[in-house]
Amino acid sequence: MSTLLLITSSPTSIHAWHAFGLAQALKQKNESFRVFFYQDGVNVANALQWVPDDQRKLTSEWQKLEIRLPVCVSAALARGISDAENAQRHNLQQHNLADQFELVGLGELADAVQSADRLIQF
């Protein structure tokens, strides 16, 4: 069974952490799954997001999973998150997309929804 985790919650939300926990469990069980970061969920891909030393950083936790981390490009740009290519295209002075995350279009979400047996939104 293939699962799509649609993460729309901010990284400061407990729901975003639950999404990560489920992804960890699915990976440990070798279950087929994909993730997609959308709406406020894209903030997890902001390399400039600061987290106090006594707290875990959700961005780093996702990076440790070593899976594909697609992020909606429109939602990211609207929230001030850009990769180098889009920074140049939109005349932004810098980029701040965290390593291992990649900006993609909504067509990728449509494909993921179509191919998934179940979709879980956080």
TrEMBL record:
GO biological process, one term: tRNA wobble position uridine thiolation
Keyword Cytoplasm attributed: yes
InterPro entries according to UniProt: DsrEFH-like, Sulphur_relay_DsrE/F-like, Sulphur_relay_TusD/DsrE
Subcellular location: Cytoplasm
Keyword Cytoplasm annotated: yes
The entry's keywords: Cytoplasm, Transferase
GO function terms (MF aspect): sulfur carrier activity; sulfurtransferase activity
One GO term describing the cellular component: sulfurtransferase complex
Family the entry assigns: Belongs to the DsrE/TusD family.
Entry-linked NCBIfam families: PRK00207.1 (NF001237), sulf_tusD_dsrE (TIGR03012)
Protein name: Sulfurtransferase
